[in-house]
C-alpha cells in the first residue's frame, strides 16, 4: 500500500491507543511506526541485487518482526520502570507494546490486501500473501482517511478526536469489506464466462485495476498463456471479452541464470509473459497489466535480462512510461467509461 495510507492509519491508531497525556504527538508516532516496515530499503546497500529482490516485503513485513519488535519495546519499558526512569506520559509498558503491535500489524495487513505479495511467514516459508482486493494506491480508501486525520488535528476536544479516529478506521474497514465482496462477484462472473466459452484454465486470479476496486481484471492461466478480461460492478451483462497472451516460456532457455529466474518468477507469482527484444529477454509481470489496459501498449512492470560479455546476466526492473496526453486521453475516453459499465470492443491479440 502507499506510504500515505500507512501513515494516516497509524495516526488514527496512535490517537486511540495512547492516552491524552502524550498529546498530538500520538498521531506523529503512529504515522512513523506504521511506516517502519517499508524502511527495509536502507539495508539494500549491504546486499546484492538478488538478495535485495528477495528481501523486499519479507523480513520487515513478517509475523516474526511485528511480534518481536513490540516484545522488545515492552522489555525496554519494563527496564526503564525498574531503573525508575519513568515512561513518557505515564504510559504502561503493555500500552506501548500494544501500540507498536497495532501500528506494525496495520501496515502488514494492508499490504496483504494488495497484489504485490507479502512474505509474512519469513524466514520459515517463502510463500507470498496477496489477497488482490486493493490496488497499491486507492484514493477511495485513502482520501476519507486523510479527511478524518485532518479533522483529528483540527479538534482540541479529546472525545471528538477519538470519534474521528474511530470513524476513519471504520470507514477503512467497511471499504475493504466492500472490495472483498466486489472481488467475489468479479471472480464468479469470470468463472461463469470461462465455463460458457469453454476456455480451460489452470488458475484464475481477480485483480483490481488502477486506483479503484470497481473495475476488475480476470487473468486465467492456461498451460501456455493467459486470457485477460474485465468486469465492472456497473456492468449490465456478464459477457466477458477475453484476450489471449502467450507465455513464451521457451525463451527463458536462453537465460543461463536459474537463481535469478526463480526469484523473478517467485516475485511475479508465476504470472509472466516473455518476449525477445534485440539481445535482451524481457519478462513482463502480467498481474499489473498494460499501461492502456486492454488496448495495445507496454506492460507496466517488466524485467529486462541482457547477457554480458563476461558471461553474466544483467537485469533491470523497468516501469513503462507514456506521454501524459495519451494517458489522459485513455483515462477519459476508455478507462472511466469502462469503469462505469460502458463496454468497448476489446481487440484480440
Explain the overall architecture:
This protein is 44% helix and 15% strand. By secondary structure, the protein is an alpha+beta fold. It has two domains: 3-179, no CATH class; 240-339, no CATH class. The strands form two sheets. Strands 1-2-3-4 form a four-stranded antiparallel beta sheet, with helices on one face. The radius of gyration is 23 Å and the shape is globular. 34% of the residues are buried.
Q: Shape from CA axes?
A: globular
Estimate what percentage of residues fall within beta strands: 5-15%
Task: Count all strands and give the number.
Answer: 8
Rounded Rg: 23 Å
Number of helices: 9
* Helix content bin: 40-55%
* Unreliable segments of 5+ consecutive residues: none
Tally the structural domains: 2
How is this fold's topology laid out?
Blueprint: H1 3-17, H2 25-35, H3 49-55, H4 63-82, H5 93-112, H6 139-154, H7 158-196, E1 203-208, E2 215-221, E3 225-232, E4 243-246, H8 258-267, E5 272-277, E6 280-285, E7 301-307, E8 313-319, H9 324-339
Antiparallel strand pairs: 1-2, 2-3, 3-4, 5-6, 6-7, 7-8
Helix pairs in contact: 1-2, 1-5, 1-6, 1-7, 2-5, 4-5, 6-7
Compact summary:
44% of the residues lie in helices and 15% in strands. With 349 residues, it is α+β, with helices and mostly antiparallel strands. The chain folds into two domains: 3-179, no CATH class; 240-339, no CATH class.
Descriptive terms for the model:
about 350 residues, alpha+beta, 2 domains, four-stranded antiparallel beta sheet, 9 helices
